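Help!! Second protein's tokens look totally different from the first
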Amino acid sequence: MSEEMQLLKEGAGHLGVSLDDRRLALFDMYRKELLKWNATTNLISEKSAGEIICRHFLDSLAAAKFIPDGEKCIVDAGSGAGFPGIPLKIALPHIRVYLLEANRKKISFLKHVIRLLGLDKTWTLHDRMENIVREETWRGKFDIVTSRAAFKLPDLLPLADYFLGPAGLLITLKAGDVAAELAATMNIPDVSVKYHINQYDIDIPFSGPPRKIIVFQKVE
């Protein structure tokens, strides 16, 4: 086992996620494709390309503990290079995942990774959230919306609300102080009536300050 995959296995274990050899092999393939494509396509920053295990894989897996058991249907909003959607799919193969991304080159990469890794029940949506919510196609179709710092909370919540079914979850991964974003979100009419809101500090192994995970759960 490579040093990178040993680091990932140990870090995931600290987050309560067990990765067997098959899952680690998929992560290794994913890592290599990220580096290969990133040489010509702007998928991730040059700095974070040297810290894929901590900055992207483990950071994404921090959301796993908030996903209930069962074949949940997830839309990953602003998925970019597949975070947190693809790491979550590898770790939790029973979930169904839609990777929502507006950038054409990133969508091409996501489709390539889905095929290469053989990820079943994993699809891409090439569009912007703001466009999708104008139609009825995806309204209430998802159990969970995930987002990794792609949107400010007061902008994200009204869009995510469209996608979520009864008792649906919005799981957001943030860095730094989110007090201002949360305060602005609470100014949205009826948000405290429609949602239970919880904030968690999650220590990402081998990384810097704790990540903030804010979970909004629709009140049934």
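Here's the second one for comparison:
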Amino acid sequence: MKKGIEKAEILIESLPYIKEFYNKTMVIKYGGHAMIDDDLKRDFALDIILMKYIGINPVVVHGGGPQINELLKKLNIRSNYIQGIRITDRETMNVVEMVLVGKVNKEIVGLINYHGGKAVGLSGRDGDLIKAKKLTLLKNQARDMPPEIIDLGRVGEVTQVNPEILVTLDTQGFIPVIAPVGVGEDGRAYNINADLVAGAVASHLNAAKLILLTDVEGVLDRDNRLIASMTSKKADQLIESETITGGMIPKIRCCQEALAGEYSNNPDNRVAGVTKAHIIDGRIKHAILLEMFTRQGIGTEILSS
């Protein structure tokens, strides 16, 4: 009986959050260990299905770097990186699209459907969902010398999201699962960072939340303590003081852009932005539910102000 009462109390604790988020859109970037461990994959699918059944509209954007690396290795195609970005030539792009759209995306869709949900897989090519342009990377040279332009091949950045297909799927009760492949004006596919795609989709849908699943606890202070909540301005200060470093910086920048509704520095493409962004530990069972429906949460939330 005691355990039953405890479960009832958990449900009651979540009630205000269920009411607050009813009929709201949540964009979840799915990646890291949560995509590899079988138990965590099942838990993720169940979390997404539960959200849909209680009236929340989840949209999933996934990565797939390890799976891409695995196939490239089998095909004896060498991966080269500059500033942590994979150089994507024509041959590599074919593998990227094959893995992200043809394999990883369908596995996630199949998992959600197997556990009782209704998921549909998409890439940026579908309905011109994600418009992209070639990403320009500049490398500083000696003083008085112009920066060197680095050719990354078919690596892109988001210029526009056309959410009509996502709205249509939502009204029909489907859960969109998006592979981070965009389409350029020339009709060619571009490989885009999944965090950036999730942020852009969240902004264009005016989502209530953008949630990034990672393999870390969240944002930590200098004493390695979790920062439960901070503003975008505070995040800038922590980056400047080098409290936030390394791979966490692009995730913070992604969240800030999603909050501000700014993409590709294009003033004509400004959108409403998201209400809150969250960086959470996807290695924890039911991490999404714990962050959304409990008072304390488990990760770091970032607010615009």
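Reply: Different proteins will give different token patterns, so don't panic. The first strand starts at residue 25 and ends at 30.
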